[in-house]
Design brief:
66% of the residues lie in helices and 0% in strands. With 61 residues, the protein is mainly alpha-helical. The chain has one domain: Protein Yjbj, Chain: A, CATH 1.10.1470. The chain is globular.
C-alpha cells in the first residue's frame, strides 16, 4: 500500500483491522506520516506475520 493510499484510507483500514484483531489499541494503530515502517512493525509483532504478509493483508482490506 503506498503512503498516499495509507493516508487516504487509514481510518477505514484501521476499523477493519480492529474487526479482525479486537485486541489492537488505538495507540498501536496510530498512523503517522513518515513512520509507516514502525506501524508495520507493530502489526507484525501483534499478528505474527511477516512484513510482506502484513502489507498484502492491508492491501486486501
Amino acid at each position: 500500500m503506498s503512503k498516499l493510499t495509507w493516508q487516504g484510507r487509514w481510518n477505514e483500514v484501521k476499523g477493519k483491522v480492529k474487526q479482525q484483531y479486537a485486541d489492537f489499541t488505538d495507540d498501536e494503530l496510530l498512523y503517522q506520516e513518515g513512520k509507516e515502517d514502525e506501524l508495520l512493525g507493530r502489526l507484525q509483532k501483534k499478528t505474527g506475520k511477516t512484513k510482506d504478509q502484513v502489507e498484502d493483508w492491508l492491501n486486501g482490506l
